Amino acid sequence: MLPPSYICFCEKLGIFSINSLVLNIICYIQSGMEKKYTLVFDDVIIKQLKKVAKNQHIKNILTKMLDKLEYSGADAGDLLDSQLFIYEIKNKHPPIRLYFKHKRQTDEIYIFEFDMKTSQERQQSTIEKVRLKARSLKS
Questions:
Q1: Strand partners, 40
Q2: How many CA atoms lie within 13 A of 138 on its CB side?
Q3: What ranges make up the beta strands (E) of 15-137?
Q4: Three-state DSSP class for 5?
Q5: CA-CA distances (angstroms) from residue 101 to 16, 56, 116, 129?
């Protein structure tokens, strides 16, 4: 049986195939790992994931990033802002960055957006947008 978070994720986005999720779950069950964190998706990331649904390679990369987040939490990424607890996960080829916030009280991971890094300026503007969203979550 699929965990509720995967079912909600699939129903909400309608883009990832159940077969690949079942394989991921079987691998985690066999390795004895348990899900520790709940993933919460921002509206922006949902729109982005719907757009990228056609590209299987990027979909697989993002699925692995999200799985890693679900099981490792904030340890899966690099800390960007120590006061707001904003993190990023990087992938080198293609250069994808996934931005998220860890809410320690509830062990929820808020996923804001991902970005294909094209320039330093664009990356900084994305980080500033994520900081604004994180501040609104903090209150």
A1: 110
A2: 11
A3: 38-41, 78-81, 86-91, 96-103, 108-116
A4: helix
A5: 23, 26, 19, 13
Sheet with 108-116, edge to edge strand ranges: 38-41, 108-116, 96-103, 86-91, 78-81
Residuewise pLDDT in 10s, the chain (139 residues): 444 444 445 454 454 554 454 445 444 444 455 678 999 998 999 999 999 888 999 999 999 999 999 999 999 999 999 999 999 999 998 999 999 999 988 889 999 999 988 889 999 999 999 999 999 886 4
Q: How far apart are alpha carbons 13 and 80 in whole angstroms?
A: 28
Cα first-last separation, the chain? 36
Domain 36-138 has CATH 3.30.2310.20: yes
